[in-house]
Specification:
- With about 110 residues, the chain is an all-alpha fold.
- The protein contains 7 helices and no strands.
- Helix 2 runs antiparallel to helix 3 and helix 3 runs parallel beside helix 5.
């Protein structure tokens, strides 16, 4: 696992979503990415997908590559790398070539 979710991160995610009927499932966090207007919800959902995400969550994570919060963009590409590995090499290359994506170190 290149970017595993630490026990402390999992506890922080569970704490953040404690009032929102958390279900530790890919579909729950994917729904958060698609529907939440809270930047903190989005951030923690991106991190949680490192633990329970599959290739099905990749499109939702890619959609966050232009999110206004830098941590979300950076964590989204790392989560994609964690889930998909080299299968998304062309995506990482596109991020490196995209002048609007400034976090080049994460794409590398």
């Amino acid at each position: 696992m290149p970017f595993p979710l630490s026990p402390g991160s999992r506890a922080a995610i569970e704490h953040h979503f404690r009032w929102k009927k958390l279900a530790w499932e890919e579909s729950y966090f994917g729904n958060v990415l698609e529907s939440s207007t809270s930047k903190h919800d989005v951030y923690w959902a991106v991190l949680a997908l490192r633990d329970c995400g599959t290739l099905a969550s990749i499109p939702a994570l890619k959609a966050k590559m232009d999110y206004p919060m830098q941590d979300v963009k950076c964590c989204a590409i790392l989560t994609i790398a964690h889930i998909a590995g080299s299968a998304e090499t062309s995506f990482y290359a596109d991020a490196l070539l995209n002048p609007e994506y400034r976090e080049k170190g994460y794409a590398m």
